Amino acid sequence: MSEHRPRQTPAPARTAHVLTATAGLLAGVSLMVTFRTGLEERSVALAFGMLVAVGELIRGARPGLREAAPLGSAGSLSYALLGEHAGHPSHHGVAQVVTVVAAASLLGSVPHLARGQGPVLDHLVRRVLAVGFAAVCFQPLYSHGVFDRWRGPGYALLLLALLVLTVLCDAVVAAALAHSRTGWPFPPLLRDELRAVPGIGSAVCVTGAVMALAVAVVGLWALPVFSVPLLLTQLSLRRYAAVRATYRQTIASLARATEIAGYTPVGHARRVAALSQAVGRDLGLPEAERAVLEHAALMHDIGQLSLVDPVPAGATAGLPAAEQRRIALLGGAVVRQTGASAQVAAVVERQADPYPEQPVAARIVRVVNAYDEKVQGAGPGGPLTALEELRLGTGTEYAPEVVEALARVLSRDCLTLPKAG
Question: What's the pTM value of the predicted model, to 2 decimals?
């Protein structure tokens, strides 16, 4: 009889379980401590709780936003770093900070949970861990007078330093959760998170520090005053996300023109775009470059609409090099007429150039397009046969680093692939 072994949880999934359990334990212990000791300075706790809840209620639900609730984040971190209220020392501790922020975040997330919008659990885990980290670093030391010698500009710089450190730790947690959820490589995910820190991350840090300093001097009236700029920023982010979603839908609709006209197989453009995105992430392309890559991959075959006679099965990889370049140039001209960015048009135009002369995005589109064409007619060998054909073409037609990145991506998709010799 065969021995049945218990299934082991993959390491990335274990990481997510550990982070979620840690956040849950921190929130649970904080809640029990707060119930036992009582809520200190209830008006302050209520004001910050309302600010966090409102920030969560109006947070963006569309994917693509690095920080979907900047107002909630700034309010949470400000409460974690609050030492005084209107000139009087505050007495709330780490447990109360975590309890108020966790409860307000959960309350503000109820509508998003009801509509099934976005990874709410990951968002709550990040919020609890980030606020807990900031509160643990600040509240005990402040209550023991460690920061008494830091006054004026030095105190403000200290708050900013703690906030920056908190945002950096949150970036690591966010990358770990994304790695667990998607299986994508951790280093590129972490690079994406760190690249976002100087943008919206810096706005959250500065606003959180200013809120804490202002409330310490003038009281709770500072909260609505200093929330307005970040609130406007949050609304702008939501509009930006909506514009990006509409633009992508337009590109995807244009990409289907070749399928509707019978020039390419159904789903080819979407498959090439999805696989190109995964390869680009594996190679460490920044998020902005991956957006260009996705749009170019969706429209890489649009030049075939200018052909009198369709290419059989839309397979351009087997055409002579001159014909491939002609179709690519025609495609670039069409893309420019659609109003897409010049970067997207350049990638489409150069996808058939010799690979040493191509930008990285064009190299990826060329390799992934050839793979998808080959795998459709490769028979039972499918992916293995198509990948080996690409490897035989490295050094002449295809960039070796892109082919190997494609092999790694396919391997993570549970395909058993041979290693390059």
Answer: 0.75
